[in-house]
Automatic annotation (TrEMBL), chain A:
Pfam families in the cross-refs: Fer4_9, FlpD, NAD_binding_8
Name of protein: Putative adenylylsulfate reductase-associated electron transfer protein QmoB
Family: Belongs to the HdrA family.
GO molecular function, one term: oxidoreductase activity
Annotated InterPro entries: 4Fe4S_Fe-S-bd, 4Fe4S_Fe_S_CS, FAD/NAD-bd_sf, HdrA-like, MvhD/FlpD
Cofactor needs: FAD
Residue ranges of domain 4Fe-4S ferredoxin-type in the record: 524-553, 554-583
TrEMBL record, chain B:
Keywords of the record: 4Fe-4S, Iron, Iron-sulfur, Metal-binding, Oxidoreductase
Annotated 4Fe-4S ferredoxin-type domain residues: 18-45
Any single GO CC term annotated in Swiss-Prot or TrEMBL for this entry: plasma membrane
SUPFAM superfamilies: alpha-helical ferredoxin
Gene3D superfamilies: Alpha-helical ferredoxin
Protein known as: Fe-S oxidoreductase
Species this protein is from: Desulfacinum infernum DSM 9756
PANTHER family: IRON-SULFUR-BINDING OXIDOREDUCTASE FADF-RELATED (PTHR43255:SF1), IRON-SULFUR-BINDING OXIDOREDUCTASE FADF-RELATED-RELATED (PTHR43255)
GO MF annotations in UniProt: 4 iron, 4 sulfur cluster binding; metal ion binding; oxidoreductase activity
Length: 739, 386
């Protein structure tokens, strides 16, 4: 269909007072020959929208350029259907609210933004959603413990079919060996019985849930809504097609044989918390050394946790679990001496009441480092410690049993690091640091980048913990429970429900061809112009989400439903063959080329700002909302992620005479804040290559700067923008200006 | 360093002696921070840390028996009213002291005090027959079957020459209001509040039993106390021993009489007056308004509030048996209190407790501020306003 552009200039919110709107209209109708251009004092009102709608219906306008407020607001007001291309010109926040009214430079800025958007509207197409084949909305739950059972039950309750795969012959997992759970209801003072059999019954009795016990996942290929799962069940094979996956394989206790300094392995009466729980479950709590009853017990918390020699992290559940087990002893016999040696007692929320109850029960709480677990000379054990609270070494009375509260080790961390492809001889090592993928034999994904979910610290599956704790780096796969992070029973059940909902969100969005996260609802996806592919593998290697597989000849095989639409592949491709309908190297390149660069003697420098849409661009809006001012030389182009920046844009800008380029991206490295995990880091790595471009053009490398910025840093932005402008002034104008 | 030994037996003994909530403590240290000992320098301040002392108690570990530590607490209740765990810290102090004193190991300086209370029924080494000497020149009625109120005068106001003024003033006020009251006299014994706080449980039981028997035999139903300490123990400790009466502090009764129009006061006090809240009247018994209302009536030029007042009032250091402690100048809480009063421009510092009177007068003298600030019992101001 022929494209017909309509440009609409809103004069409300101070725009009309600050700008020469007639001149703006002239840019559209004169320079760009836009057939329809109108202004309105209140464009987002019903009347303003009716004006646009009339043109769509009567004039055949199908590409809309809305020159009004930030594209981050009034999204619904300016939605005229998925088949209409909409481009927004941010005249309000980033022009009139942050620059002086009636000023020549403010006007030039507005006109440039209009030119850039008109160019984009001319080049872009409305996205056409990806349609997969044989889509499934079923949900695979891997692991039949407390978390997995809960996730399965919740997903089924929401009306979704579930396939549950459990490694052992029985459902229940670790909870099978547990006598009682910590209190979950008022008055929170007593361990409580948990009806695990009831939960198992709900799952096995549900006609929506298919249960495979004694099974493991041999292979998962495909992508969200099109995952093909091969299940090994006692030698036989089964195949299931599912839409999304909840990974709930849990954790295992830390290996106590490494805790000899706490007496484990040296004294038979030093045992672990899970061994004690099993004793209570069996109803036989006896000293392993002689089978005699236990008349005194000491718990050592953080046994191997929060210890740089063992597990550096807090295992989150052991404090409360030990309080619970101490309560078992006190309930059986209030006179039994019970010691709890701790670093910090982390009995969060209502578990405080349990802690308080055990204080009242007379448990000896000792805060400090355990320095020895020794034979008392009479066959029992005595614990010595450095007690912080009396600042002195102390020695416990004799106890019959010492219980080590060993921490949690995620099952996802149990595997050797997987290396996708060794560099061939003579081939240089990849500059982009590879993801940590541990071959833990849980999912066995047929993903080019590795068979499991990438991990960040300590082998836990990575999530964007600040904003999106439920996410993994694999779209449609949601780790839940202790495989994801150390947590207790009740939190694991909440986690399970959360992950089930995420999985449902995934299958529903994917079935409509929409991005799931974080660009939820985005219909565009990257398309590859394969005739020009050189099989360089950059896109397959750099995709933060493993969305692109490759064939034997190293041709990329994209999986659009795995994709998060960040455009990192587009930034990676040296041949520029990867494009979205509304976002491509060409579209952005043409926007840059349509910035008017005044001649050198006009002394009006130009600065291109490529701003991450997730943090930097909203921060720029915030500057306007706060009515702070910055120089009028900047021209901002929002990018999906700085990782989608293609180096050719830098060359385009500089050879056009633009004086400097500022890249505004998210914090990278440890505790990264990039919504797309590695985009900002990749942009930074690509920056190092910019020098070559600049050298070729005989330009100073200071003309391109990278700044890390979080959304809350908006206060610093005017200083960053003006500081860069001032530095560029020192460098002098770009010599390519008047060519 | 030699390890210290944890002892469940010792811990349980301390608990059985009254430190029932010592295990509830989670060692946050708020108590230590709020303790008035943090406000003064010196050896006791350096050694005494209530959080640490309770820690030793809950572990049954040695070290708490050090006299400087064990007897430092003035039981002001600042820590206890703010404890996030609801630990009854004063009971814990009492229990820990009792575990030592009960074993016959009372500190040397306290033995004459406890001995006098045993022998004479008062801790001031005053002979029993002199208990009523303060009444000289007054026509104080004897308590009889038809008397409404029994006026229980604190031992301190029976024997201490300065303190008798308060007892005499109260009698005048009660008479002016036409209250039916009387005293029993020589057979009365010390209420024992401070004895119990010092850990002499046996002595307390003896004194209390003697009083309960006496009061009940005399047909006592209602008691007026001159001291907030007697008020507190009669209200909180005597009932479970069989002493159940309607007990009221003189300030509350007088305030009620003023409100009922039975007592009229003419503002006679021309100087600026500040009121010091006694711990046992304020924090321990919740009486803040009655003394202030009375003072407003008696003070011509109105009153000023100390910066630390009501629930946040600073202890005079006389409770918990500390009235008998020798404290070097510069380490006395009362000195801070006198300074507080001077800072607010007060010329008179009034209070309603014989112990506070004792401590504040000492502090005022040790600071040599007696020319600038007069320490008086509230009852004296009121009596002068009759």
């Amino acid at each position: 269909m022929e494209k017909k552009i309509g440009a609409y200039i809103c004069t409300g919110c101070g725009i009309g007072d600050a700008l020469d709107v007639a001149a703006l209209t002239k840019v559209a109708t004169g320079e760009y020959k836009v057939p329809v251009c109108r202004e309105h004092a209140f464009l987002c009102s019903e009347e303003g929208r009716a004006l646009i709608r009339a043109d769509v219906e009567n004039e055949g306008v199908n590409a809309l350029v809305i020159a009004a407020c930030s594209p981050r607001v009034m999204v619904d007001a300016f939605d005229f259907g998925a088949d209409k291309a909409v481009e927004r010109v941010n005249l309000r926040e980033q022009v009139v609210w942050s620059h002086p009214a009636g000023d020549e430079d403010t006007q030039m800025m507005a006109e440039d933004y209009l030119r850039m958007s008109l160019t984009k509207a001319k080049d872009m197409e409305p996205p056409v959603p990806f349609e997969g084949e044989n889509l499934s909305k079923r949900i695979l739950v891997v692991g039949g413990g407390l978390t997995g059972l809960t996730a399965a039950r919740e997903a089924a309750a929401a009306g979704y079919e579930v396939v549950l795969v459990e490694k052992s012959d029985q459902l229940g997992g670790y909870a099978r060996n547990v006598v009682k759970l910590p209190p979950m209801a008022p008055p929170y003072e007593e361990p409580q019985v948990f009806d695990l059999e009831g939960l198992i019954g709900e799952v096995t009795g549900s006609d929506k849930i298919t249960v495979y016990t004694g099974s493991r996942i041999e292979k998962i290929s495909g992508a969200p809504c099109m995952f093909d799962v091969s299940i090994q069940q006692n030698g036989s094979q089964a195949a299931e097609r599912v839409g999304a996956i909840v990974l709930a394989t849990g954790a295992v206790p830390y290996d106590a044989s490494k805790l000899e300094h706490l007496g484990f392995g040296k004294h038979p009466d030093v045992i672990t918390a899970d061994q004690l729980e099993a004793m209570f479950k069996a109803g036989e709590v006896k000293r392993p050394s002689n089978g005699q009853p236990v008349n005194g017990v000491a718990f050592i918390l953080c046994a191997g946790s929060r210890d740089p020699e063992h597990l550096p992290y807090c295992s989150a559940a052991c404090c409360v679990e030990s309080l619970k087990q101490a309560k078992y002893f006190k309930d059986a016999n209030p006179e039994t001496p019970v010691y709890i040696f701790y670093k910090d007692l982390r009995a969060h929320g209502n578990y405080e009441f349990l802690y308080k109850q055990l204080q009242k029960d007379g448990v000896f709480f000792v805060r400090g480092t355990v320095t020895g677990v020794d034979d008392d000379g009479a066959g029992a054990l005595a614990v010595s410690a450095e007690d912080v609270l009396t600042r002195s070494p102390i020695l416990s009375e004799s106890v019959d049993l010492v219980v080590l509260a060993t921490g949690m080790v995620s099952t996802a961390s149990l595997g050797k690091p997987y290396k996708a492809q060794q560099p061939k001889e003579g081939e240089e090592e990849l500059e982009v640091p590879a993801d940590t993928i541990l071959a833990s034999n849980l999912l066995n994904l047929e993903y080019r980048q590795g068979p499991e979910i990438p991990a960040l610290k300590y082998g836990f599956p990575d999530s964007h913990f600040i904003c999106f704790p439920y996410e993994s780096r694999r779209t449609g796969i949601y780790p839940a429970g202790t495989v994801r992070a150390p947590m207790d029973y009740s939190r694991a059940m909440d986690d399970a429900a959360g992950a089930a909902l995420k999985a449902i969100q995934c299958v529903e969005m994917t079935a409509q061809g929409k991005a799931v996260h974080p660009r939820a609802g985005d219909l565009s996806y990257p398309e590859f112009f394969m005739q020009r592919c050189t099989q360089c593998k950059r896109c397959t290697e750099e995709c933060p989400f493993g969305a692109i597989n490759e064939d034997e000849k190293a041709n990329p095989l994209p999986n659009p439903t795995r994709c998060r639409r960040c455009g990192v592949c587009m930034g990676a491709c040296p041949e520029r063959i990867i494009s979205f309908k509304n976002y491509s190297v060409g579209i952005i390149g043409n926007m840059i080329k349509n910035i008017e660069v005044p001649e050198e003697d006009e002394e009006k420098p130009r600065i291109l700002v490529l701003a991450c849409e997730n943090d930097a661009y909203p921060a720029l809006d915030m500057v306007g909302i706060r009515r702070a001012q910055y120089n009028p030389w900047v021209r901002v182009i929002p990018v999906r992620c700085l990782g989608s920046m293609n180096l050719v844009w830098i060359a385009d800008a500089l050879s056009k005479g633009i004086d400097g380029i500022l890249l505004l991206g998210c914090k990278h490295g440890d505790d990264y804040q990039c919504h797309f995990i590695k985009g900002s880091e990749l942009a930074n790595i690509r920056m190092s290559k910019i020098k070559e471009t600049l050298d070729r053009l005989v330009l100073e490398s200071d003309r391109v700067r990278f700044e890390q910025l979080s959304i809350t840093d908006y206060g610093k932005l005017p200083e960053i923008l003006d500081g860069f402008a001032s530095d560029l002034e020192d460098l002098g104008p770009n010599p390519y200006k008047d060519f | 360093m030699e390890p210290k030994y944890v002892s469940a037996e010792m811990r349980d003994y301390i608990v059985s002696m009254g430190a029932e909530t010592v295990n509830w403590c989670m060692q946050c240290g708020l108590c230590t921070n709020l303790c008035p000992w943090r406000l003064v320098p010196g050896e006791t301040s350096e050694k005494f840390n209530i959080r640490h002392m309770q820690r030793l108690g809950q572990m049954g570990m040695e070290g708490f028996e050090d006299e400087t530590v064990l007897f430092a607490c003035s039981t002001c209740g600042m820590c206890q009213t703010n404890c996030p765990r609801g630990v009854k810290i004063i009971d814990n102090v009492r229990g820990m002291r009792a575990s030592i004193v009960g074993a016959g190991m009372a500190p040397a300086n306290l033995r004459p005090i406890l001995g006098s209370a045993h022998a004479n029924g008062n801790p001031w080494s005053g002979p029993r027959e002199k208990r009523t000497a303060w009444q000289e020149g007054l026509d104080v009625p004897a308590f009889g079957p038809d008397t409404e109120y029994f006026l229980f005068v604190c031992c301190h106001s029976c024997y201490d020459p300065r303190s008798t003024k308060a007892a005499r003033s109260i009698v005048k006020l009660l008479q002016a209001a036409g209250v039916s009251f009387g005293v029993i006299g020589q057979e009365e014994s010390c209420c024992g509040e401070s004895m119990r706080k010092l850990g002499d449980e046996e002595l307390f039981q003896k004194l209390a039993q003697s009083n309960i028997e006496l009061f009940n035999n005399k047909g006592v139903k209602k008691i007026i106390t001159t001291s907030p300490h007697c008020l507190w123990t009669f209200t909180n400790e005597y009932p479970e021993l069989g002493g159940e009466w309607e007990v009221i502090h003189y300030t509350e009764l007088l305030n009620r009489l003023v409100e009922e129009g039975k007592l009229s006061l003419n503002a006679a006090q021309g100087k600026k007056v500040a009121f010091h809240d006694p711990c046992y009247l304020g924090r321990h018994s919740g009486i803040y308004d009655a003394p202030r209302a009375l003072l407003e009536k008696a003070a011509q030029d109105g009153t000023v509030e100390l910066s630390r007042n009501r629930e946040a009032s600073l202890c005079c250091a006389g409770g918990g048996g500390r009235i008998w402690a020798e404290v070097p100048m510069g380490e006395r809480f009362g000195e801070l209190r006198v300074t507080d009063a001077l800072e607010q421009g007060a010329q008179v510092l009034a209070t309603a407790c014989p112990y506070c009177m004792n401590m504040l007068i000492d502090a005022c003298n040790s600071l040599d501020k007696q020319e600038e600030l007069e320490v008086v019992e509230l009852s004296e101001i009121l009596a002068a306003s009759l």
